TrEMBL record:
Domain annotation ABM: ranges: 2-93
GO MF assignments: monooxygenase activity
Keywords noted in UniProt: Monooxygenase, Oxidoreductase
Protein name, per record: Antibiotic biosynthesis monooxygenase family protein
SUPFAM superfamilies: Dimeric alpha+beta barrel
InterPro entries per record: ABM_dom (IPR007138), Dimeric_a/b-barrel (IPR011008)
Length: 98
């Protein structure tokens, strides 16, 4: 399994709106070939930080989805959202065991 972890920090007190957008997301990625699940986390020590983990059967499935659908997946971002500069990061992982 392959995991993409995206992290970012909200700069303008819109964390509740961002979290609600994830709860109500349209699920566009759900039917993508190779998609397994999406987990969204927010650390207790920084509620303005969001960690989004997507789980895939393989890296190629993620790459195909990213290339073809990344723009539409961000359509639900709340208007006016500002991020802490340089906070968005993406890291990739091989899933070893659960």
């Amino acid at each position: 399994m392959f995991i993409a972890l995206s992290t970012f920090e909200i700069a303008n007190d819109m964390a509740p709106e961002v979290k609600e957008a994830f709860v109500k997301r349209p699920g566009l990625v759900n039917d993508a070939p190779g998609f397994v699940r999406l987990d969204v986390l927010s650390p207790k020590d920084n509620q303005n930080e969001i960690w989004m983990m997507t789980f895939w059967t393989d890296e190629e499935s993620y790459n195909v989805w990213y290339k073809n659908h990344m723009r539409e997946s961000h359509q639900g971002v709340p208007k006016g959202l500002k991020l802490v500069p340089h906070s968005p990061k993406v890291r990739f992982f091989d899933h070893v065991t659960a």
